[in-house]
What does this fold into?
Amino acid sequence: MAYSKAIANAIVDFLRDDDWHYEFDENKEIIRCGVNIKCKLKSTRLIIDLREDKYLVFATISLSVDEENRAEMARLLNMINYTMVFGNFEMDESDGEVRFRFAVDCDDCLPSREVVKDSILIPALMMEKYGDAIVKVLMGFATAKEAYEETRKK
It folds into this structure.
């Protein structure tokens, strides 16, 4: 699948101009970078998946949910997603990977600098906002409801 070089250039221009450290893997058609966040996770990896008429930004964490905690994590992510305006959290049931996904439709247009900025920062900010709740459920320290209620107090 071929990616749009114009979309890739808009993203790379933002990252370069904003002094981000990133890797562009043209063979895999992805851009990778990381960002420090203020929660127990400490950081999140961002993967920008380039497509022909869109791109997706995934914020990932290095921890995965053990099988016995996956149902509770799914409950937490469902509670969070119900209030989400842009993007969503998801979990791979087979390996417990948790990530935040944000998609940008670029059909017949190029993303502006502001759109690129938001598409990269929103996933990182969502990991920051909900990271402590994710860790608590991932480790079995709290139920989904308990962890979610703590996010509502902030």
